[in-house]
Structures are given as C-alpha cells and as structure tokens.
Amino acid sequence: QVQLVQSGGGLVQAGGSLRLSCGVSGGTFNMGWFRQAPGKERDFVTAIIRSSGRTDYADSVKGRFTISIDKAKNMLYLQMNSLKPEDTAVYYCAADPAGISRSTRFWEYWGQGTQVTISS
Question: How confident is the model at residue 81 (pLDDT cuts 50, 70, 90)?
Fold first, then answer.
C-alpha cells in the first residue's frame, strides 16, 4: 500500500523560508508538489524524475523553491525561500511511477496536504 505522509508548513513572514517534507512508503516514484489556494484550482509547483534528477518548476517559483529527493530515506522535500503572500496555499506532494506532469490528473498518489501561510 502506497502512503505519502507530509510534514512541515506553517506560518512565516514574507521573505522567510520553509521546508516541506513528504515521506513515501510502498514504493519508489517520480515526485511532485502542487498547491491549492482558497477558491482556486490545484496548481503545479514543481516535480522531479527520481532516476535522472531532472526537475520542472512553475515560473512563479523558479529560483525560489527547490525540490529534492533523499533516495535512502525515500523522502521528498520542498525548500521554499523568499516566500511571498501569494505562496499561501495548501501544499500537496504527489507520486507516480510513470513520469512527471504539470497536470493533476496524471498523478496516482497524493499526500494529505499541509497549510503554508505567508504574512505580509
């Protein structure tokens, strides 16, 4: 049984940093992060191919966020720096064996979500 368990998040001032974690059990996968602000659709943030380390970032986070995988621990991370109020959202990790995509419909497994709030 595949499980994605998220941790991290919280409240931070604009310009600050946070790190999100996602522990994966039940297999090894390509991984991604999405976020959903109140009243909006779930949007792509970043993703990584496990085997090659190739990454993809949304323009809105490029240069500020970094996705990484600790293969030994089967953990996914999202380091978020220079945070802005518009980064406020519930963040979700996602996993899939086939590849990566910016579409939510592609991903097979999802974490429970964690709230990130950036105050101005």
Answer: very high
